[in-house]
Write a structure and sequence with these properties.
Two copies of one chain form a homodimer. Chain A is mainly α and about 200 residues long. Chain A has ten helices and no strands. Chain A is elongated and about 55 Å long. Chains A and B meet through helix 8, helix 9 and helix 10 of A and helix 8, helix 9 and helix 10 of B.
DNA sequence: CCTTGGAGTATACGCTCGTTTACTAGCCGC
DNA sequence: GCGGCTAGTAAACGAGCGTATACTCCAAGG
Protein backbone atom coordinates (compact mmCIF):
# COMPACT_ATOMS: atom_id res chain seq x y z
CA UNK A 1 0.00 0.00 0.00
CA UNK A 2 2.97 2.30 0.34
CA UNK A 3 2.89 3.27 -3.27
CA UNK A 4 3.04 6.99 -2.62
CA UNK A 5 4.21 8.62 -5.80
CA UNK A 6 6.91 10.75 -4.33
CA UNK A 7 7.17 11.12 -0.59
CA UNK A 8 7.63 14.83 -0.42
CA UNK A 9 7.49 16.55 -3.76
CA UNK A 10 8.07 20.19 -3.14
CA UNK A 11 7.51 20.69 -6.87
CA UNK A 12 4.11 22.42 -6.86
CA UNK A 13 3.49 23.14 -3.25
CA UNK A 14 5.70 26.07 -2.46
CA UNK A 15 3.93 26.34 0.89
CA UNK A 16 6.26 26.80 3.80
CA UNK A 17 5.47 23.54 5.53
CA UNK A 18 3.32 24.67 8.43
CA UNK A 19 4.86 24.13 11.85
CA UNK A 20 3.09 21.47 13.86
CA UNK A 21 1.07 23.46 16.34
CA UNK A 22 -1.92 21.81 17.93
CA UNK A 23 -3.46 25.00 19.21
CA UNK A 24 -3.01 26.87 15.95
CA UNK A 25 -4.66 24.05 14.02
CA UNK A 26 -7.49 23.96 16.49
CA UNK A 27 -8.01 27.65 15.94
CA UNK A 28 -7.94 27.30 12.17
CA UNK A 29 -10.62 24.64 12.40
CA UNK A 30 -12.65 26.82 14.70
CA UNK A 31 -12.43 29.82 12.42
CA UNK A 32 -13.30 27.80 9.34
CA UNK A 33 -16.22 26.15 11.12
CA UNK A 34 -17.55 29.48 12.35
CA UNK A 35 -17.56 30.94 8.86
CA UNK A 36 -19.07 27.87 7.23
CA UNK A 37 -21.75 27.25 9.85
CA UNK A 38 -22.77 30.88 9.66
CA UNK A 39 -22.95 30.73 5.90
CA UNK A 40 -24.69 27.40 5.35
CA UNK A 41 -26.02 26.17 8.66
CA UNK A 42 -25.10 23.14 10.67
CA UNK A 43 -26.48 20.43 8.48
CA UNK A 44 -25.21 21.68 5.17
CA UNK A 45 -21.65 21.93 6.37
CA UNK A 46 -19.64 18.72 6.34
CA UNK A 47 -16.58 18.03 8.41
CA UNK A 48 -14.73 17.58 5.16
CA UNK A 49 -15.62 21.13 4.16
CA UNK A 50 -14.38 22.44 7.48
CA UNK A 51 -11.15 20.47 7.35
CA UNK A 52 -10.56 21.54 3.77
CA UNK A 53 -11.20 25.20 4.54
CA UNK A 54 -8.87 25.01 7.53
CA UNK A 55 -6.32 23.09 5.50
CA UNK A 56 -6.31 20.41 8.13
CA UNK A 57 -7.08 16.73 8.20
CA UNK A 58 -10.61 15.45 8.66
CA UNK A 59 -9.72 13.29 11.59
CA UNK A 60 -8.58 16.30 13.58
CA UNK A 61 -12.11 17.61 13.81
CA UNK A 62 -13.13 14.58 15.78
CA UNK A 63 -9.88 14.46 17.70
CA UNK A 64 -9.98 18.04 18.90
CA UNK A 65 -13.71 18.56 19.31
CA UNK A 66 -15.06 15.06 19.82
CA UNK A 67 -17.59 15.37 17.06
CA UNK A 68 -19.09 17.75 14.57
CA UNK A 69 -21.70 18.69 17.17
CA UNK A 70 -18.96 19.38 19.70
CA UNK A 71 -17.26 21.70 17.29
CA UNK A 72 -20.53 23.45 16.60
CA UNK A 73 -21.13 23.92 20.30
CA UNK A 74 -17.72 25.50 20.73
CA UNK A 75 -18.36 27.79 17.78
CA UNK A 76 -21.65 28.89 19.28
CA UNK A 77 -20.02 29.74 22.59
CA UNK A 78 -17.54 32.00 20.88
CA UNK A 79 -20.19 34.07 19.17
CA UNK A 80 -21.09 37.48 20.52
CA UNK A 81 -24.53 38.27 21.89
CA UNK A 82 -26.85 40.97 20.72
CA UNK A 83 -25.93 43.08 23.73
CA UNK A 84 -23.80 45.37 21.63
CA UNK A 85 -26.95 46.56 19.90
CA UNK A 86 -29.11 46.62 22.99
CA UNK A 87 -26.77 48.69 25.12
CA UNK A 88 -27.26 52.42 24.78
CA UNK A 89 -30.09 54.87 24.78
CA UNK A 90 -33.31 52.89 25.42
CA UNK A 91 -35.30 55.39 23.37
CA UNK A 92 -33.28 54.56 20.29
CA UNK A 93 -33.42 50.80 20.77
CA UNK A 94 -36.08 50.22 18.10
CA UNK A 95 -34.05 52.28 15.65
CA UNK A 96 -30.88 50.34 16.34
CA UNK A 97 -32.67 47.03 16.00
CA UNK A 98 -34.18 48.22 12.73
CA UNK A 99 -30.77 49.27 11.45
CA UNK A 100 -29.40 45.89 12.29
CA UNK A 101 -32.37 44.09 10.77
CA UNK A 102 -32.02 46.16 7.60
CA UNK A 103 -28.36 45.34 7.49
CA UNK A 104 -29.25 41.69 7.66
CA UNK A 105 -31.52 42.05 4.64
CA UNK A 106 -28.58 42.20 2.30
CA UNK A 107 -25.42 41.51 4.22
CA UNK A 108 -24.94 37.85 3.78
CA UNK A 109 -21.46 37.43 5.17
CA UNK A 110 -20.26 38.24 8.68
CA UNK A 111 -20.84 35.33 10.95
CA UNK A 112 -23.08 36.57 13.67
CA UNK A 113 -24.98 34.49 16.11
CA UNK A 114 -28.40 34.65 14.54
CA UNK A 115 -27.10 33.35 11.27
CA UNK A 116 -26.68 29.80 12.38
CA UNK A 117 -29.93 29.93 14.25
CA UNK A 118 -31.83 30.64 11.09
CA UNK A 119 -31.38 27.06 10.16
CA UNK A 120 -33.24 24.17 11.61
CA UNK A 121 -31.65 20.90 12.41
CA UNK A 122 -33.06 17.46 12.79
CA UNK A 123 -30.46 16.48 15.35
CA UNK A 124 -32.04 16.96 18.81
CA UNK A 125 -28.67 17.75 20.35
CA UNK A 126 -28.17 20.62 17.94
CA UNK A 127 -31.74 21.76 18.42
CA UNK A 128 -31.11 22.16 22.12
CA UNK A 129 -27.85 24.00 21.52
CA UNK A 130 -29.66 26.35 19.16
CA UNK A 131 -32.53 26.96 21.52
CA UNK A 132 -30.32 27.70 24.49
CA UNK A 133 -28.13 29.96 22.45
CA UNK A 134 -31.08 31.85 21.00
CA UNK A 135 -32.38 32.40 24.52
CA UNK A 136 -29.20 33.43 26.24
CA UNK A 137 -27.68 35.44 23.41
CA UNK A 138 -30.70 37.22 22.00
CA UNK A 139 -34.04 36.87 23.70
CA UNK A 140 -32.99 37.14 27.34
CA UNK A 141 -30.71 40.17 26.88
CA UNK A 142 -33.39 41.87 24.84
CA UNK A 143 -36.07 41.07 27.40
CA UNK A 144 -33.85 42.39 30.16
CA UNK A 145 -33.70 45.73 28.39
CA UNK A 146 -37.48 46.00 28.34
CA UNK A 147 -39.98 46.81 31.06
CA UNK A 148 -43.40 45.40 31.69
CA UNK A 149 -44.82 42.00 32.48
CA UNK A 150 -44.63 40.56 29.00
CA UNK A 151 -41.08 41.67 28.27
CA UNK A 152 -40.17 38.18 27.24
CA UNK A 153 -43.07 37.87 24.85
CA UNK A 154 -42.12 41.16 23.24
CA UNK A 155 -38.50 40.10 22.98
CA UNK A 156 -39.55 36.86 21.35
CA UNK A 157 -41.64 38.62 18.76
CA UNK A 158 -38.83 41.03 17.96
CA UNK A 159 -36.46 38.11 17.60
CA UNK A 160 -38.94 36.41 15.31
CA UNK A 161 -38.74 39.40 13.01
CA UNK A 162 -34.97 39.09 12.97
CA UNK A 163 -35.11 35.42 12.15
CA UNK A 164 -37.69 35.94 9.45
CA UNK A 165 -35.66 38.62 7.73
CA UNK A 166 -32.65 36.35 7.64
CA UNK A 167 -34.76 33.57 6.25
CA UNK A 168 -36.12 35.91 3.64
CA UNK A 169 -32.69 36.94 2.51
CA UNK A 170 -31.68 33.37 2.13
CA UNK A 171 -34.80 32.38 0.24
CA UNK A 172 -35.26 35.39 -2.02
CA UNK A 173 -31.69 36.60 -2.09
CA UNK A 174 -30.10 39.67 -0.57
CA UNK A 175 -31.92 42.94 -0.96
CA UNK A 176 -30.42 46.36 -0.36
CA UNK A 177 -32.60 48.07 2.23
CA UNK A 178 -34.05 51.47 1.39
CA UNK A 179 -34.56 54.27 3.91
CA UNK A 180 -38.23 53.37 3.77
CA UNK A 181 -37.34 49.85 4.84
CA UNK A 182 -35.46 51.10 7.86
CA UNK A 183 -38.30 53.43 8.71
CA UNK A 184 -40.84 50.64 8.44
CA UNK A 185 -38.75 48.27 10.53
CA UNK A 186 -38.29 50.96 13.16
CA UNK A 187 -42.04 51.42 13.36
CA UNK A 188 -42.52 47.67 13.67
CA UNK A 189 -39.97 47.31 16.43
CA UNK A 190 -41.49 50.23 18.25
CA UNK A 191 -44.90 48.63 18.01
CA UNK A 192 -43.38 45.41 19.26
CA UNK A 193 -41.34 46.76 22.13
CA UNK A 194 -43.74 49.20 23.70
CA UNK A 195 -45.41 47.87 26.83
CA UNK B 1 -31.76 -15.83 -1.92
CA UNK B 2 -35.35 -16.89 -1.97
CA UNK B 3 -35.35 -17.79 1.67
CA UNK B 4 -38.52 -15.90 2.47
CA UNK B 5 -39.81 -17.27 5.74
CA UNK B 6 -43.36 -17.85 4.71
CA UNK B 7 -44.59 -16.44 1.44
CA UNK B 8 -47.86 -15.04 2.64
CA UNK B 9 -48.50 -15.47 6.32
CA UNK B 10 -51.84 -13.94 7.04
CA UNK B 11 -51.22 -14.70 10.70
CA UNK B 12 -50.65 -11.19 12.03
CA UNK B 13 -51.66 -8.96 9.19
CA UNK B 14 -55.40 -9.15 9.15
CA UNK B 15 -55.42 -6.29 6.65
CA UNK B 16 -57.86 -6.71 3.82
CA UNK B 17 -55.26 -6.85 1.05
CA UNK B 18 -55.58 -3.44 -0.54
CA UNK B 19 -56.93 -3.44 -4.09
CA UNK B 20 -54.29 -2.44 -6.59
CA UNK B 21 -55.20 1.08 -7.54
CA UNK B 22 -52.53 3.27 -9.04
CA UNK B 23 -54.35 6.54 -8.47
CA UNK B 24 -55.27 5.72 -4.90
CA UNK B 25 -51.68 4.81 -4.09
CA UNK B 26 -50.46 8.01 -5.69
CA UNK B 27 -52.86 9.95 -3.52
CA UNK B 28 -51.75 8.14 -0.37
CA UNK B 29 -48.16 9.02 -1.17
CA UNK B 30 -49.12 12.62 -1.82
CA UNK B 31 -51.03 12.91 1.44
CA UNK B 32 -48.24 11.30 3.43
CA UNK B 33 -45.63 13.50 1.80
CA UNK B 34 -47.65 16.63 2.44
CA UNK B 35 -47.95 15.86 6.13
CA UNK B 36 -44.31 14.86 6.55
CA UNK B 37 -42.84 17.73 4.57
CA UNK B 38 -44.95 20.19 6.51
CA UNK B 39 -43.86 18.66 9.79
CA UNK B 40 -40.16 18.14 9.22
CA UNK B 41 -39.15 19.99 6.07
CA UNK B 42 -37.87 18.68 2.79
CA UNK B 43 -34.47 17.49 3.83
CA UNK B 44 -35.45 15.70 6.99
CA UNK B 45 -38.05 13.60 5.26
CA UNK B 46 -36.80 10.52 3.45
CA UNK B 47 -38.61 8.75 0.68
CA UNK B 48 -38.60 5.72 2.93
CA UNK B 49 -40.55 7.66 5.55
CA UNK B 50 -43.06 8.75 2.96
CA UNK B 51 -43.48 5.29 1.54
CA UNK B 52 -43.82 3.81 5.00
CA UNK B 53 -46.39 6.39 6.07
CA UNK B 54 -48.37 5.78 2.90
CA UNK B 55 -47.96 2.03 3.29
CA UNK B 56 -46.53 1.88 -0.19
CA UNK B 57 -43.27 0.75 -1.67
CA UNK B 58 -40.26 3.06 -1.88
CA UNK B 59 -39.85 2.59 -5.59
CA UNK B 60 -43.31 3.94 -6.26
CA UNK B 61 -42.24 7.40 -5.16
CA UNK B 62 -39.77 7.54 -8.00
CA UNK B 63 -42.09 5.81 -10.39
CA UNK B 64 -45.04 8.11 -9.84
CA UNK B 65 -43.27 11.40 -9.19
CA UNK B 66 -39.91 10.97 -10.87
CA UNK B 67 -37.97 11.89 -7.80
CA UNK B 68 -38.28 13.14 -4.26
CA UNK B 69 -38.01 16.68 -5.59
CA UNK B 70 -40.78 16.00 -8.08
CA UNK B 71 -43.03 14.79 -5.32
CA UNK B 72 -42.22 17.84 -3.25
CA UNK B 73 -43.06 20.09 -6.18
CA UNK B 74 -46.41 18.42 -6.60
CA UNK B 75 -47.10 18.76 -2.88
CA UNK B 76 -46.29 22.46 -3.03
CA UNK B 77 -48.65 23.01 -5.92
CA UNK B 78 -51.48 21.49 -3.98
CA UNK B 79 -51.08 23.86 -1.06
CA UNK B 80 -53.42 26.82 -0.69
CA UNK B 81 -52.21 30.38 -0.93
CA UNK B 82 -52.61 33.05 1.68
CA UNK B 83 -55.41 34.62 -0.31
CA UNK B 84 -58.03 33.27 2.05
CA UNK B 85 -56.65 35.57 4.73
CA UNK B 86 -56.03 38.50 2.47
CA UNK B 87 -59.48 38.61 0.95
CA UNK B 88 -61.93 40.68 2.89
CA UNK B 89 -62.10 44.09 4.49
CA UNK B 90 -58.76 45.83 3.77
CA UNK B 91 -59.02 47.75 7.02
CA UNK B 92 -58.97 44.53 9.00
CA UNK B 93 -56.11 42.98 7.06
CA UNK B 94 -53.48 43.62 9.73
CA UNK B 95 -55.76 42.09 12.33
CA UNK B 96 -56.37 38.99 10.26
CA UNK B 97 -52.68 38.56 9.56
CA UNK B 98 -51.99 38.96 13.26
CA UNK B 99 -54.58 36.34 14.11
CA UNK B 100 -53.01 33.96 11.68
CA UNK B 101 -49.51 34.73 12.92
CA UNK B 102 -50.63 34.17 16.50
CA UNK B 103 -52.22 30.92 15.51
CA UNK B 104 -48.94 29.87 14.03
CA UNK B 105 -47.18 30.53 17.32
CA UNK B 106 -48.56 27.38 18.83
CA UNK B 107 -50.34 25.41 16.16
CA UNK B 108 -47.74 23.04 14.95
CA UNK B 109 -49.81 20.73 12.84
CA UNK B 110 -51.91 21.61 9.80
CA UNK B 111 -49.83 21.56 6.71
CA UNK B 112 -49.95 25.05 5.35
CA UNK B 113 -47.74 26.46 2.72
CA UNK B 114 -45.43 28.46 4.89
CA UNK B 115 -44.55 25.47 6.97
CA UNK B 116 -42.32 23.87 4.45
CA UNK B 117 -40.83 27.20 3.55
CA UNK B 118 -39.57 27.69 7.05
CA UNK B 119 -36.89 25.20 6.29
CA UNK B 120 -33.88 25.82 4.18
CA UNK B 121 -32.53 23.35 1.74
CA UNK B 122 -29.14 22.87 0.24
CA UNK B 123 -30.56 21.47 -2.97
CA UNK B 124 -30.71 24.36 -5.48
CA UNK B 125 -33.69 22.82 -7.25
CA UNK B 126 -35.67 22.84 -4.02
CA UNK B 127 -34.49 26.32 -3.19
CA UNK B 128 -35.97 27.58 -6.43
CA UNK B 129 -39.21 25.74 -5.82
CA UNK B 130 -39.40 27.31 -2.38
CA UNK B 131 -38.62 30.78 -3.61
CA UNK B 132 -41.17 30.67 -6.39
CA UNK B 133 -43.78 29.27 -4.11
CA UNK B 134 -43.14 31.88 -1.43
CA UNK B 135 -43.50 34.58 -4.05
CA UNK B 136 -46.60 33.37 -5.82
CA UNK B 137 -48.44 32.04 -2.80
CA UNK B 138 -47.67 34.66 -0.18
CA UNK B 139 -45.73 37.75 -1.15
CA UNK B 140 -47.34 38.55 -4.48
CA UNK B 141 -50.95 38.13 -3.31
CA UNK B 142 -50.18 40.19 -0.25
CA UNK B 143 -48.46 42.89 -2.28
CA UNK B 144 -51.42 42.98 -4.65
CA UNK B 145 -53.67 43.78 -1.74
CA UNK B 146 -51.59 46.80 -0.80
CA UNK B 147 -51.26 50.23 -2.35
CA UNK B 148 -48.24 52.42 -2.77
CA UNK B 149 -44.95 52.17 -4.59
CA UNK B 150 -43.21 49.86 -2.15
CA UNK B 151 -46.06 47.41 -1.77
CA UNK B 152 -43.74 44.53 -2.47
CA UNK B 153 -41.23 45.63 0.12
CA UNK B 154 -43.98 45.86 2.70
CA UNK B 155 -45.32 42.47 1.73
CA UNK B 156 -41.86 40.99 2.07
CA UNK B 157 -41.38 42.40 5.52
CA UNK B 158 -44.76 41.12 6.64
CA UNK B 159 -43.89 37.71 5.26
CA UNK B 160 -40.60 37.81 7.11
CA UNK B 161 -42.51 38.20 10.35
CA UNK B 162 -44.56 35.12 9.47
CA UNK B 163 -41.49 33.09 8.71
CA UNK B 164 -39.76 34.22 11.86
CA UNK B 165 -42.68 33.28 14.05
CA UNK B 166 -42.76 29.83 12.57
CA UNK B 167 -39.05 29.50 13.10
CA UNK B 168 -39.47 30.60 16.68
CA UNK B 169 -42.11 28.02 17.37
CA UNK B 170 -39.90 25.31 16.01
CA UNK B 171 -36.87 26.44 17.95
CA UNK B 172 -38.42 27.33 21.29
CA UNK B 173 -41.48 25.16 21.11
CA UNK B 174 -45.13 26.11 20.67
CA UNK B 175 -46.45 28.97 22.75
CA UNK B 176 -50.11 29.77 23.30
CA UNK B 177 -50.63 33.36 22.15
CA UNK B 178 -52.17 35.80 24.61
CA UNK B 179 -54.54 38.61 23.64
CA UNK B 180 -51.58 40.93 24.18
CA UNK B 181 -49.65 38.96 21.58
CA UNK B 182 -52.39 39.37 19.02
CA UNK B 183 -52.62 43.06 19.83
CA UNK B 184 -48.87 43.49 19.44
CA UNK B 185 -48.78 41.59 16.19
CA UNK B 186 -51.66 43.65 14.87
CA UNK B 187 -49.77 46.83 15.67
CA UNK B 188 -46.68 45.47 13.97
CA UNK B 189 -48.54 44.45 10.83
CA UNK B 190 -50.24 47.83 10.73
CA UNK B 191 -46.86 49.54 11.00
CA UNK B 192 -45.61 47.31 8.24
CA UNK B 193 -48.49 47.58 5.83
CA UNK B 194 -49.21 51.27 5.96
CA UNK B 195 -47.84 53.18 3.00
C1' DC C 1 -57.83 -21.41 -19.40
C1' DC C 2 -54.17 -18.94 -20.87
C1' DT C 3 -51.76 -14.72 -21.94
C1' DT C 4 -50.29 -10.24 -20.77
C1' DG C 5 -49.72 -5.57 -19.02
C1' DG C 6 -49.08 -3.00 -15.28
C1' DA C 7 -49.26 -2.37 -9.97
C1' DG C 8 -46.47 -3.46 -6.47
C1' DT C 9 -42.13 -5.41 -4.48
C1' DA C 10 -37.36 -6.70 -2.97
C1' DT C 11 -33.03 -5.58 -3.49
C1' DA C 12 -29.01 -3.50 -4.88
C1' DC C 13 -26.25 0.49 -6.65
C1' DG C 14 -23.52 4.49 -6.01
C1' DC C 15 -22.77 8.08 -3.16
C1' DT C 16 -21.81 10.99 0.93
C1' DC C 17 -21.89 11.41 5.57
C1' DG C 18 -19.57 11.34 10.52
C1' DT C 19 -16.43 8.73 12.74
C1' DT C 20 -12.48 5.54 13.74
C1' DT C 21 -8.22 3.24 13.25
C1' DA C 22 -3.63 2.31 12.08
C1' DC C 23 -0.10 4.61 10.55
C1' DT C 24 3.82 8.40 9.45
C1' DA C 25 6.79 11.94 10.68
C1' DG C 26 8.65 15.95 13.21
C1' DC C 27 10.28 17.92 17.56
C1' DC C 28 12.22 17.68 22.45
C1' DG C 29 14.65 15.88 26.45
C1' DC C 30 18.22 12.95 27.43
C1' DG D 1 22.40 11.43 18.24
C1' DC D 2 18.34 9.19 19.29
C1' DG D 3 14.01 7.22 21.42
C1' DG D 4 9.46 8.56 22.42
C1' DC D 5 5.63 11.55 22.70
C1' DT D 6 2.35 13.50 19.70
C1' DA D 7 0.63 16.33 15.73
C1' DG D 8 -0.86 15.06 11.53
C1' DT D 9 -2.32 11.76 7.83
C1' DA D 10 -4.57 8.22 4.79
C1' DA D 11 -7.80 5.06 4.41
C1' DA D 12 -11.59 2.62 5.62
C1' DC D 13 -15.99 1.63 8.11
C1' DG D 14 -20.85 1.36 8.62
C1' DA D 15 -24.97 3.71 8.10
C1' DG D 16 -28.28 6.25 5.52
C1' DC D 17 -29.61 8.53 1.54
C1' DG D 18 -32.05 8.89 -3.37
C1' DT D 19 -32.51 6.20 -7.21
C1' DA D 20 -32.67 2.21 -10.49
C1' DT D 21 -33.55 -2.49 -11.84
C1' DA D 22 -35.39 -6.87 -12.19
C1' DC D 23 -38.71 -9.32 -10.39
C1' DT D 24 -43.63 -11.22 -8.63
C1' DC D 25 -48.32 -11.37 -8.82
C1' DC D 26 -52.93 -10.12 -9.70
C1' DA D 27 -56.69 -9.27 -12.75
C1' DA D 28 -58.79 -8.27 -16.92
C1' DG D 29 -59.28 -9.57 -22.21
C1' DG D 30 -59.30 -13.13 -25.62
Amino acid sequence: MNIEAIPSTEAQVAEAARPRDREATRQRLLVAARALFAEHGYEHVTVRMIASEAEANIALVCRYFGSKAGLFGEVLQGEPTIRRIIDGDPAGLAGRLAEYAAWRMHHDPESRILRSLEYSSGDPEIKILMRDRLRTAVIDPLAAALDGPDAHARARTATALFLGIGRMRRTLGPEAPTPADVERLTAMFEACLRA
